[in-house]
Design a protein that fits this description.
Layout: H1 4-17, E1 22-25, E2 32-35, E3 38-41, H2 50-60, H3 66-72, E4 74-81, E5 85-94, E6 97-105, H4 121-125, E7 130-135, H5 142-154, E8 160-165, E9 178-183, H6 191-198, E10 205-208, H7 214-225, E11 229-234, H8 239-248, H9 255-265, E12 266-276, E13 282-290, H10 293-300, H11 307-312, H12 322-331, H13 337-343, H14 347-353
Helix pairs in contact: 1-2, 6-7, 7-9, 9-10, 12-14
Length: 356
Amino acid sequence: MKDYQSQIDELLETAAKHNASDIHISVGRYPTLRIDSRLVPLNKYSIITAETAEGLAGVLIPSEHKEEFLAKKEIDFSYNYKDKVRFRVNVFHQRGFVSVALRIFPPKIKTLKELNLPEILETFVKSAQGFFLVTGPSGQGKSTTLAALIDSMNHSQTKHIITIEDPIEYIFDQDKCLIDQREVGKDTLSFRRALRSVLRQDPDVIMVGEMRDLETISTAITAAETGHLVFATMHTNSASQTIDRIIDSFPIGSKNQIRAQLASSLLGVFSQRLIPIPGGGRIPAFELMVATPAVRSLIRENKVYQLDLVIETSSDNNMVSLNRSLANLVHRGLISMESAEIYSLNKSDLKLLLGR
């Protein structure tokens, strides 16, 4: 029987070799990889027992967090494998057993071009101030896109960038920018606390790994209003849903104020999905809303329900609807019609665009 460290090392090497995005360790199942959105059991290994799951988790959990895990029953942290690959790890309990989920982050930060993302995103990196959001469901590449944007700035501008992450996912090799990366739980107690103090740390650019609560959202928008460039992510499906989610986070008496703040500070919202490619791999489909005067007016006047139509009819302002992005991928033969329909939020409009 191999020791648990050797078993973990072999699993991590196998996942990296197969370009997996995730590893799952669950009692009663084979170790399982997620490859191109599909779960692939590694049946060359033994089925995970309760003892093995605890042993593997024990190797991964840093010693300083083991008491916290015992007390809270779940824990998030980052794991650096031989300075080659980083993982975001969540260890949790289910039915009384220990389980582990690992998300893999490649060591090299890819460029927007390498990620098949639109060049127009570079314009937001060049903004002096404002608020730009990258959104989408979990596991759809938000962190990777945000890292590409920050790294583009790192190689082209001289800025002080502060990131607040839980946990730190990509490590930036500082080039022209001074980059301070703060990890929640290790370098700061919370997103809220870090954001409250960040304005005293002389940043030009602030990256918020995830906007989770009212105070974080409010502080991020205020930072954008007061002369900073702020990038953040949210787990929302579209630009209009993102605006609704932000405004709905605030109490009724504050909604008009936050609409005005958001309308004046917003630069854009980029929402993305990773679509499986026949034969292997994934390619992004996306929606891009640019904060034009028309968009700002709709937000200010509480007409968010009209944003989808504006995005659909504003290609001359570099806006792209998700359906147009999906239809383009189908026309280019990169994805199937069936895949496009699965990821579309409006299947009837998609069929019209494709002439079906």
